[in-house]
Amino acid sequence: MRHLLCGIDEAGRGPLAGAVYAAAVILNPASPIVGLADSKKLSESKRDALAIQIKAHALAWGIASVSAQEIDEINILQASLLAMQRAYQAMVVQFGIHASLIQVDGNRSPKFDIPCEAIVKGDSKVAEISAASILAKTARDASLLILDAQYPDYGFAQHKGYPTALHLARLAQFGITPEHRRSYGPVKKLLS
Questions:
Q1: What percent of the chain clears pLDDT 70, i.e. is strictly above it?
Q2: Domain map of the chain by residue range?
Q3: Where is the RNase H type-2 domain (predicted)?
Q4: S-S: 17 plus which of 67, 80, 89, 161, CB 3.0-4.6 Å?
Q5: What residues form the annotated binding site?
Q6: Which residues make up each annotated binding site for a divalent metal cation?
């Protein structure tokens, strides 16, 4: 059996609204993708272009999310780990390919039935994790554009749910939506 490395990363731990997303990617050594990097260091247009390439050229990939409601129930760390597990499962279901090793970005790894390593700053060290970070970020950003259409008063397209001055001002003005994370400080404060 050849060695297949799956990289996994999440996007959206910090925002006050929306789901947390994760992606799992097994790259194809025969079809390298130029320009992979930590998604936070890339422009939106570069991320979008790379996401298309990753989906076209990777051996396998999967994307999954954990909702704001689930985040409130189990906390953001557990939700991030769950999103990673769901992303891996989505990849296996979609492509029928299992990895021989999983590497995740960060210092905590979810439980899998194959070896898994957590790598601090893995999204800038491991191409597979970089690719996963790009897919997770672009999927999450796309979901925030949908929220922006549902809740046009909140400016989700601009701040993507992060606690910016604009977002906090709109929260104070219009109240919380069902997509806001009630366990997060600024939202919790409005509830009390």
A1: 99
A2: 5-191
A3: 3-192
A4: 161
A5: 9-10, 105
A6: 9-10, 105
